[in-house]
Design a protein that fits this description.
With 268 residues, the protein is of the alpha/beta class. It contains 12 helices and 10 strands. The chain is globular. The model has no long low-confidence stretch (mean pLDDT 95).
């Protein structure tokens, strides 16, 4: 799975002396775009665009999504391997017979949840950002399939409450990538078991390093970031005083993120 993440740029590592600028105004050594496991960056972005174009016509949206993921599963080896890996993970860790539904949240979860529901012969519940869902159901248990878990805020804010409003209890969630940044603890408190294909931790980084998918400088930067993102990046900025200045004189997107960093005082 690590090779697929790297091959599709679903997991991108910065140069060891130049972390990425994030939308938040913070910096970090990697980007995760798990939805690229749909087969490629191009195909993933095309599906996102098509989802957005049909957001006001849910019947057409759902028809498009179901046709698209089934066709992609048949035709694209990367996507098929990803889905098959998720199905194997589910069958090893979840009581499939005891699950009434599979759910997925708008938008990137749908890349994976719909196909998993189809292969598990379960009804799929579409969860939307406006805290609505389709179809209407009454009671039961649910497995939530997601692309990524970070702090679990979308679960707490939307997915779990919407399901509970229909009398549905989320017992498990299966994700492609777990960033290990608080989501596990939050979901355990809510009685949800978390299972992931890949966890961003020291073991993952060491495997990348041993397979020569990252160099030594990248390896150590990521390990420090995993231990404490804010402290490690503050130390980087202190040791590279021209880094922010270069960003301020870079392209407009980078400049705006650097300005936000200064405004928020993240690394002062």
């Amino acid at each position: 799975m690590l090779e697929l993440l790297m091959k599709t740029n679903a997991f991108m590592v910065s140069a060891g002396d130049s972390p990425f600028w994030y939308t938040s105004g913070k910096i970090g050594p990697f980007y995760i775009n798990t939805h690229y496991l749909f087969g490629s960056e191009e195909s993933a972005k095309k599906l996102l665009s098509d989802i957005d174009s049909l957001k006001d016509d849910r019947e057409s949206l759902i028809e498009m999504l179901e046709n698209r993921v089934k066709n992609q599963y048949e035709e694209n080896g990367i996507y098929r391997m990803t889905i098959d890996s998720l199905i194997d993970l589910i069958k090893k860790n979840v009581d499939v017979d005891g699950i009434s539904y599979v759910s997925g949240g708008e938008r990137r979860d749908w890349f994976f949840s719909i196909m998993c529901a189809f292969l598990l012969n379960k009804k799929h519940i579409y969860l939307f950002k406006d805290n609505t869902s389709f179809p209407a159901v009454d009671g039961g248990t649910c497995l939530h399939v997601a692309d990524l878990i970070t702090q679990g805020s979308s679960y707490e804010r939307s997915w779990i409450p919407v399901l509970e409003g229909m009398g549905v209890r989320m017992t498990d969630t299966v994700v492609c990538v777990n960033r290990n940044q608080g989501g596990n603890a939050l979901l355990r408190e809510k009685g949800v078991n978390v299972h992931s294909l890949v966890s961003v931790d020291e073991a993952m980084m060491r495997e990348l390093y041993e397979k020569r998918l990252v160099d030594e400088k990248q390896f150590h930067m990521i390990l420090e970031y995993i231990e404490d993102p804010d402290v490690s990046m503050k130390r980087f900025v202190e040791n590279n005083p021209d880094f922010v200045e270069k960003a301020l004189n870079s392209d407009e997107r980078t400049r705006q993120r650097a300005l936000l960093c200064i405004e928020k005082g993240y690394y002062n």
